[in-house]
Amino acid sequence: MEQLSEKSGINLSTLKKYETDNRNPKLEQLSKIAEALEVSVFEFLDIEVKSVNDIISLVNKMNIATDIDWDIDNDKVCISFKNKEINNCLKEYAVDYKKDNILIEKTETNNESTFTRLMLINDKLR
């Protein structure tokens, strides 16, 4: 905790309050902690994807940040990234994902399948 306090510039007593849920950090504080720990701030956020609009918003943010390549077919849309490092990390994640036999949970809404959760937790993506 002392090292995190030094690296993040956040008072040790404040960090202890965050850890014990006596206080919630603002986004600026989370950003400092994430930077000190060398992880994405998204590691601290529990983002639930409940609708197609949620997915579109996430894809839009990724497109703005990374410049997505689109491959559009009649039945599906495939995305890849112009950044080869991102593609390589995603490829490794997909191999591990399939190997562990994990499925993305689906739910039926108005006779259309929508993804309800999509969380990438691979260390290489951070």
TrEMBL record:
Q: What Pfam families does this protein's entry cite?
A: HTH_3
**Keyword NADP tagged:** no
Family annotation (Gene3D superfamilies): lambda repressor-like DNA-binding domains
All copies of the HTH cro/C1-type domain together span: 1-44
Entry keyword annotation includes Membrane: no
Query: Which GO-annotated molecular functions does the record name?
Result: DNA binding
Note the superkingdom of the native organism. Answer: Bacteria
Provide this UniProt record's keywords sorted from A to Z: Plasmid
Name of the protein in its database record: HTH cro/C1-type domain-containing protein
Q: Which organism is it from?
A: Lachnospira eligens (strain ATCC 27750 / DSM 3376 / VPI C15-48 / C15-B4)
Question: What are the top taxonomic ranks of the organism?
Answer: Bacteria, Bacillati, Bacillota, Clostridia, Lachnospirales
